[in-house]
Design a protein that fits this description.
The protein is of the alpha/beta class. It has helices spanning about 10-25, 45-55, 55-60, 70-80, 90-100, 145-160, 175-185, 195-200, 215-220, 235-240, 240-260, 265-270, 275, 280-290, 300-315, 315-320, 335-340; strands at about 30-35, 60-70, 85-90, 105-110, 115-120, 140, 165-170, 190, 210, 230-235. The chain folds into 2 domains: about 5-110 and about 225-340, Periplasmic binding protein-like II (D-Maltodextrin-Binding Protein, domain 2), CATH 3.40.190; about 115-210, D-Maltodextrin-Binding Protein, domain 2 (3-Layer(aba) Sandwich), CATH 3.40.190.10.
């Protein structure tokens, strides 16, 4: 399937609408929403992109522009700065910002697990056998301050390694992350699919020190389920735009239902070619690894939010000291309303 680049989707939609309005004599107003994505090529964000490819945003009455960033921290900055409306990123940012008295709220959760893996660079297989061996090493994350950065620091502290004693380098999530690992620019990295599977396809003996792509692995690492990707934004934006928030929720929830009723091959066929990449077999393998991660309900499990707070309390003194009301970091109201209508 040939698709337009993410940044050009809005122009195509507007052209189509203008043509329809001229032919019918009736202009149909749509709400313009800009979604900042923390790395569109990552399968963790697939539901956000797929919703556009399936036309779910249009069906919900929205004109959505998706803007791609290197990591979740940069996508968040775009929303905080007012250049985007909503983040497609990891829920843990809502908890972290609550400690800074900044009210961010997730309203639809599409990832049940974070999908992170702590991977050793192929050239370091002989020297790095455990997380303790990462002391003093260069470790890649999508971007400093991103969820991959948070996860790395949590895993280091959990295994007795001082995060201040490692070099943290931003390498993105897709082909740039794979290249950094293969070239030896970093000694290890927090990666997500499809990059993990792509690197593993080229390096059969790839060492993975920690993995959170399945329920079992996530429970082993965090002690319970741990929500990953979600649509979230400022609480005051949600209060001022309930119709748009509901429309976004409906679109993503319909997409999740579509995902779980179609084959991996059918899902891949809907994704933009530039995100699938040239090696479709490896992308398909990565997608099959990722499918269990996608939520079936879109709801935030309160126990999952508790797990995020527990993890951050261990790795961030600021969060540990703050009195955070978790109920204000997410809402299931829009999911419940969507369920009633469906």
């Amino acid at each position: 399937m040939t698709a337009l680049p993410i940044r050009r989707l809005t122009a195509a939609a507007l052209t189509f609408l203008a043509t329809m309005a001229l032919s019918s004599g009736v202009a149909q107003a749509q709400s313009k929403i800009t979604i900042a994505i923390g790395g569109a090529n990552c399968l963790c964000y697939l539901p956000t992109v797929l919703a556009n490819e399936l036309g779910e945003y249009k069906k919900a009455g929205l004109n959505v522009e998706m803007v791609d960033f290197k990591g979740g921290s940069q996508a968040l900055t775009a929303v905080l700065g007012g250049s985007a409306d909503v983040v497609s990123g990891y829920f843990d940012h809502c908890v972290n910002l609550a400690a800074k008295n900044q009210s961010m709220q997730a309203f639809v959760v599409y990832d049940r697990y974070p999908g992170f893996a702590l991977v050793v660079a192929p050239k370091q297989n002989a020297t790095i056998k455990s997380i303790k061996d990462l002391a003093g090493k260069r470790i890649g994350v999508s971007a400093p301050g991103s969820s991959t950065d948070f996860f790395l620091k949590f895993m280091l502290k959990k295994n007795g390694v001082d995060p201040e004693g490692v070099g943290i380098i931003g390498i993105g999530l897709g082909s740039t992350a794979v290249a950094a690992m293969e070239q030896g620019s970093v000694d290890a990295a927090i990666m997500l699919d499809p990059a993990i599977t792509l690197l593993q396809g080229k390096n059969k003996d790839l060492t993975i020190l920690s993995d959170t792509r399945t329920q079992k692995d996530t429970v082993d690492v965090f002690g319970g389920e741990y929500p990953g990707g979600a649509l979230y934004t400022r609480a005051d934006w949600i209060a001022a735009h309930p119709k748009e928030t509901q429309a976004l929720t409906n679109a993503v929830l319909n997409t999740l239902k579509w995902i779980h009723s179609h084959t991996p091959e059918e899902i891949m066929a809907k994704m933009p070619d530039e995100l699938v990449g040239p090696d479709k077999a490896l992308y398909l393998a990565a997608l099959k690894n990722t499918l269990p991660m996608y939520s079936t309900t879109g709801k935030m499990d309160p126990k999952g939010a508790d797990a995020v707070l527990a993890v951050f309390s261990q790795s961030s003194p600021e969060v540990a000291k703050a009195k955070i009301d978790l109920s204000k970091t997410y809402t299931n109201k829009f999911i419940e309303q969507a369920d009633q209508k469906m």
